[in-house]
Each structure stands twice: as structure tokens, then as C-alpha cells.
């Protein structure tokens, strides 16, 4: 399948899934109520559709697109099918920032937890950028990311350990499990500038991703500023992931799954899968959030739990296939 055709099909698929997510929910609406929602802005049906469901779907699509795009960038940069935003420790840094803000009682201040999460993610991303400038080997960068992720997890566990109350502990745990429930249009607008900046950096680094597939030596001889492109790729992925963590909490495996779902259609070109990966990530997360909402459970499933349930087996399958290829 041609990449352009694949992108168009994914865009149509996203529209279909988003339409289902807006129309389906715990409160069933009749045809007359849908008509009211479209024609009477102040009606109860309009409030449900445009003030509750639509912004939630929009935030889920933004977060999924950001994670899918950053996953495609990291897999192309590191030439590793198991790479995803969390592997560089950016998600852990964002989670640590949010947990620290909540533990210090800052959650009552508007935007404080989000700023703390974005700050933590950017701090972790800054360390990764410094490592990318110092070490060219992708394996070294992965190991640095794993170490950073483990350290972020340890510090978050320390926050849990000294949590001032069970309520604070529950609040931190809820954030770390990820969700887009109760998000509104302001959350989408809040994350948009950071996501746009991350998108710009990723597009700037796009030529370097294709060159990296030819090897370090060939890339160095290409005349492209590879060190600058590599740093831009990491910084762009960090911004996208940080903004996603800031508005939704920690949601894993979307950055891993989305590039794999579209890689065959893009003929394994890491530069060509950026747009399809973003669309696939958005579609995955909107669909996962819809599943979390409509499952008949007493307590609504957290979005991060749903993505982990399908992402963890996929991760194992990819690792199994990679191990078999390494043996060969």
C-alpha cells in the first residue's frame, strides 16, 4: 500500500472512531437529543456531546498522536523496534514531576501538576539530548534511557514512601495510571503549543531518520548535520511525550504499537511512517478510551491500564521476533 493511501485510510479510520467515541457513552442519547445537540447549543444533550465527550475525544487523539509520532521518531533514530517514549525515561520524568507536585499539595493550583509533569519530562529529555550529543551509538542511548527511567521510577517510589496521606497516595497513583476523563477544551489548548513545537522538531529531523538506516558512516558522509538532527529528534520526542504526560498522565505502549501497525505500508522507511504513526496512535487511544468508557464495570478502567493490557503482549511478541532474528 502506498504511504499516501495508507495515510488517507488512517485519517478516515480516525474520523470513524472519533465519531463513535463522541456518540457512544454511558448516557444513551435519542435521535431527538442528537438533533438538539446540533441545533440548540445550551441543551443538556449539547452539554454532553460538546462539553464532555468531544473534548475528551480530542485530548485522547492529541495524546495518541503525540505518543505515536514520538515512538516512530525514536524507533527510527535508535533503529530499534522496541524503542518507545518511555524507554528514554521521558515518561518517568513527567510522572515524577506530577507526583512531586501532588505530594507537595500543589494540585489545587490550576496547571501546577501539568507544568510540573512537563518540566519533569523536559528535564529528562534534556539529559537524553546531552547523552545523544555525547554518544552516537544507539545502544548507549537506549541504556542511558533505561537507567534514567529506572531512576525516575525510584524517585517516584520515594515520593510514595513519604506521601503525607492515603488521599495523596491515591491521587498520585491515579495520575500515574493515565486517563483523559474530565478533560476539557482548555487541556487541549494548553498542550497544543508544546506539541506543535515537538512536531516541528520531528519534521526538521525527518531527513536524518532515513539517512540513519544506511548506517552511521554513510550518514556522517551525507553532508547533513546529523548531530543537530539527532538532538532535534530526541528533543521533539521529549516535548511530545512531556505534553502528553502533562494532560493525561503516564500512558504506555502506544508509542510502541503505532509504528509497528503502519510500518509495512510505509515500506520500512522511518521518515515515511511519521504521519501514519501519529494517526494510528490517535486512533488507538481514542478507541482504547471508548472501550474504557463503555465496559460495564463498577469503576471505569484507567486508560493506561487498557493500553497496557494490549501493549504488553505486543511488546513480548516484538521482543520474541527480534530475538529470533538476532539468533539467525
Give the structure's gist in a few sentences.
Helix content is 76%, strand content 0%. By secondary structure, the chain is mainly α. The two termini are 28 Å apart.
Task: Describe the overall structure.
Helix content is 76%, strand content 0%. The protein contains 13 helices and no strands. It has helices at 3-23, 31-39, 44-78, 90-103, 112-134, 138-161, 166-177, 185-212, 216-220, 226-248, 254-262, 274-294, 303-327. Helix 5 runs antiparallel to helix 6. It is globular and about 65 Å long.
Ordered list of secondary-structure elements with their pairings:
Blueprint: H1 3-23, H2 31-39, H3 44-78, H4 90-103, H5 112-134, H6 138-161, H7 166-177, H8 185-212, H9 216-220, H10 226-248, H11 254-262, H12 274-294, H13 303-327
Question: N-to-C SSE series?
Answer: HHHHHHHHHHHHH
How big a fraction of the residues is strand? under 5%
Estimate the global geometry from the Cα principal axes: globular
- Counting DSSP H or I runs of 4 or more residues, the number of helices is 13
What Rg, in angstroms, do the CA atoms define? 20 Å
Q: In percent, how helical is the residue content?
A: over 70%
- The beta-strand count equals 0
Structural class: mainly alpha
Q: Low-confidence parts, pLDDT < 50 over ≥5 residues?
A: none
The largest sheet is: none
Amino-to-carboxy terminus distance = 28 Å
What's the rounded overall pLDDT mean? 83
Amino acid at each position: 500500500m502506498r504511504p499516501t493511501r495508507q495515510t488517507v485510510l488512517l485519517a478516515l479510520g480516525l474520523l470513524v472512531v472519533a465519531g463513535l467515541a463522541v456518540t457512544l457513552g454511558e448516557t444513551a442519547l435519542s435521535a431527538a437529543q442528537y438533533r438538539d445537540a446540533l441545533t440548540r447549543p445550551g441543551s443538556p444533550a449539547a452539554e454532553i456531546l460538546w462539553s464532555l465527550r468531544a473534548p475528551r475525544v480530542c485530548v485522547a487523539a492529541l495524546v495518541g498522536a503525540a505518543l505515536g509520532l514520538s515512538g516512530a521518531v525514536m524507533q527510527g533514530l535508535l533503529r530499534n523496534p522496541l524503542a518507545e517514549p518511555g524507554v528514554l525515561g521521558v515518561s518517568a520524568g513527567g510522572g515524577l514531576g506530577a507526583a512531586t507536585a501532588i505530594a507537595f499539595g500543589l494540585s489545587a493550583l490550576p496547571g501546577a501538576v501539568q507544568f510540573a509533569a512537563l518540566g519533569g519530562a523536559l528535564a529528562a529529555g534534556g539529559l537524553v539530548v546531552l547523552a545523544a550529543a555525547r554518544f552516537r551509538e544507539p545502544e548507549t542511548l537506549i541504556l542511558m534511557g533505561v537507567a534514567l527511567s529506572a531512576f525516575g521510577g525510584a524517585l517516584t517510589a520515594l515520593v510514595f514512601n513519604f506521601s503525607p496521606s492515603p488521599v495523596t497516595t491515591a491521587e498520585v497513583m491515579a495520575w500515574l495510571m493515565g486517563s483523559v476523563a474530565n478533560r476539557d477544551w482548555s487541556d487541549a489548548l494548553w498542550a497544543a503549543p508544546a506539541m506543535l513545537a515537538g512536531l516541528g522538531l520531528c519534521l526538521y529531523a525527518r531527513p536524518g531518520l532515513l539517512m540513519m538506516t544506511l548506517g552511521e558512516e554513510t550518514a556522517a558522509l551525507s553532508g547533513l548535520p546529523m548531530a543537530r538532527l539527532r538532538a532535534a529528534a530526541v528533543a521533539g520526542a521529549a516535548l511530545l511525550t512531556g505534553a502528553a504526560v502533562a494532560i493525561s498522565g503516564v500512558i504506555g505502549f502506544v508509542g510502541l504499537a503505532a509504528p509497528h501497525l503502519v510500518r509495512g505500508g510505509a515500506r520500512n522507511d522511518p521518515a515515511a511512517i511519521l504521519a501514519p504513526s501519529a494517526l494510528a496512535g490517535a486512533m488507538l487511544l481514542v478507541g482504547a478510551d471508548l472501550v474504557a468508557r463503555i465496559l460495564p464495570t463498577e469503576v471505569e478502567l484507567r486508560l493506561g491500564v487498557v493500553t497496557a493490557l494490549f501493549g504488553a503482549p505486543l511488546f513480548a511478541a516484538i521482543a520474541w521476533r527480534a530475538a529470533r532474528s538476532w539468533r539467525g
